[in-house]
Amino acid sequence: MIDEIKAALQDLSSSEKKEFLPKFFKAGKGEYAEGDQFIGVTVPDQRQIAKAFCNKVSLAELEELLSSPIHEYRLCALLILVSKFEKSKDSTEKKEIVEFYLRNKKFINNWDLVDTSCYKILGRYCYENQNDSILKDLSEEEILWSKRIAVVATMFHVKKGSFALLKELVLKNLHHEHDLMHKANGWLLREMGKKDEEELLNFLNLHYQKMPRTTLRYAIEKLDEDLRQDYLKSRM
């Protein structure tokens, strides 16, 4: 079955995309995704393949796909995993999917792989089981992608109007050295503000002066322009 998925993806590959994607995802020497390999398949096409094979492939088979050096294979595996989790009505099966995700998290090693999957699986699981220890533990790891998984997974909480975990995890890694964390923190704060602007403003008033500039810019993107300028120019 995995060979069929790989063949289907290869059939949809584009030489133009194959050349572009390593640059877009920073896979060059010394960049954060150094060594990542691409065959040149668009995300909409990957979603179609994932939909076609979701009910035909097992977790054991997915492990082979997710451990591939080919980026599109890994993303397709995660799209299938998300679909399996969302369709499942069985708590044991959902736990198995979460354990599978955590066991293979070393292969979830670029921002699109993280952002496409983590809040729909880990975030939802933690929220629905009222147990955030998984995300707190990930936020303590020294691996960039684990930290990004932790904060982006709180998207599910934010969508449900629950903000405490997001604020805790943002503050824990507020001064991480990588801009991918600055962007993730700012993005999730912005999402909180879209849900409840007062919550965002209260958080910003306490912390904006010590935020990395990128985090602040992302967080205030949807605010009134005059208010944005007040924060950017430290007039609050």
Describe the structure in brief.
InterPro entries: ARM-type_fold (IPR016024), DNA_alkylation (IPR014825). The chain has helices spanning 2-11, 15-24, 43-53, 59-66, 71-87, 91-103, 111-128, 133-140, 144-153, 155-159, 164-172, 179-195, 197-207, 213-219, 225-232. It is mainly α and 236 residues long.
Explain the overall architecture.
- It comes from Kaistella chaponensis.
- Pfam families: DNA_alkylation.
- This is 3-methyladenine DNA glycosylase AlkD.
- The chain has 236 residues and is mostly helical.
- The protein folds into 2 domains: 1-109, no CATH class; 120-236, Alpha Horseshoe (Serine Threonine Protein Phosphatase 5, Tetratricopeptide repeat), CATH 1.25.40.290.
- 69% of the residues lie in helices and 0% in strands.
- It has 15 helices and no strands.
- The longest helix has 18 residues, at 111-128.
- The model has no long low-confidence stretch (mean pLDDT 96).
Number of domains: 2
Number of helices: 15
Q: Can you tell me the CATH topology of the largest domain? A: Serine Threonine Protein Phosphatase 5, Tetratricopeptide repeat
Give the helix level as a range of percent. Answer: 55-70%
- Write down the CATH class of the largest domain: Mainly Alpha
- CATH homologous superfamily identity of the largest domain: ARM repeat domains
Order of helices and strands: HHHHHHHHHHHHHHH
Low-confidence stretches: none
In the CATH hierarchy, the architecture of the largest domain is Alpha Horseshoe
Shape descriptor reads globular
Q: How far is the first residue's CA from the last residue's CA?
A: 58 Å
Q: Structural class, judged by helices and strands?
A: mainly alpha
Largest sheet: none
**Structural Rg:** 19 Å
Instruction: Bin the strand percentage.
Output: under 5%
Oligomerization state: single chain
- Overall residue-averaged pLDDT value: 96
